[in-house]
Amino acid sequence: MSEHRATIRWSRNDADFSYKNYSRDHVWLFDNGFEVPSSAAPAYLGNPERVDPESAFVAALSSCHMLTFLALASYKGFVVDRYEDEAVGFLEKNANGKLAVVRVDLHPSIFFGGNAQPTQAELDWLHDKAHRECFIANSVTTQVNVAPPK
C-alpha cells in the first residue's frame, strides 16, 4: 500500500473578501517538489490560466485508465506506441440534487506497434479490465464511459 500527499496553499491578497472579488488562485504542492498553479473553474470565477479541480479530476481518471491499460497491454504482449485521450467530464446535479462530476467520457486513441495487433474484442477487454482495475475509478461514484475517439 502507499500514501499520496498534496499540500494546498491559498492566501488572501486583497482587503476585499466579498464572494465575487476574492482570488481563487492557489497552488498544489507535491512531495517531489512539483507545484501546480490552480484556481476554480472559470465558470466559478477562477483563473482560466490555471488548472481547476474538476479538470484535474477528469485528467486523473483518464491518466489512471491509461496507465492501467498500458500495463494490461504489456502483459498481453501488445506494444503500444502512442495513447491519446480527449476526456470530457460533465458537472451536473447528481441524484441528491448536488453539483458533481457525474460522468466522465474517455475517448482514447491507441496506436499499436509490433506484429501483435489486438482484435476489437481484445481491445474491449483491455478497456473494461483497465476501468475495473483503475485506482481512481474505484475511488469515486462518477460514471466513466470509454467511447471511440472524437
Write the layout of secondary structure elements.
Elements lengths: L5 E4 L16 E5 L4 E4 L14 H23 L3 E7 L2 E6 L5 E8 L1 E6 L6 H14 L9 E4 L4
Parallel strand pairs: 6-8
Antiparallel strand pairs: 1-2, 2-3, 4-7, 5-6
Helix pairs in contact: 1-2
Short description:
The chain is an alpha+beta fold and 150 residues long. It has helices at residues 53-75, 120-133; strands at residues 6-9, 26-30, 35-38, 79-85, 88-93, 99-106, 108-113, 143-146. It has a three-stranded antiparallel β-sheet with strand order 1-2-3, with no helix packed on it. A three-stranded mixed β-sheet has the order 5-6-8, with helices on one face.
- Domain unit count: 2
Q: Tell me the Rg in angstroms.
A: 19 Å
Strand content: 25-35%
Q: Main sheet, how many strands, which sense, barrel?
A: 3 strands, antiparallel
The arrangement of helices and strands along the chain is EEEHEEEEHE
Uncertain stretches of 5 or more adjacent residues: none
**Annotated CATH architecture of the largest domain:** 2-Layer Sandwich
Strands side by side in the biggest sheet = 1-2-3
Q: How many strand units? A: 8
Kindly name the structural category.
alpha+beta
Shape summary: elongated
Number of helices in the DSSP assignment: 2
The CATH class of the largest domain: Alpha Beta
Distance between the termini: 36 Å
Helical coverage, percent range: 10-25%
Q: So, the CATH homologous superfamily of the largest domain?
A: K homology (KH) domain
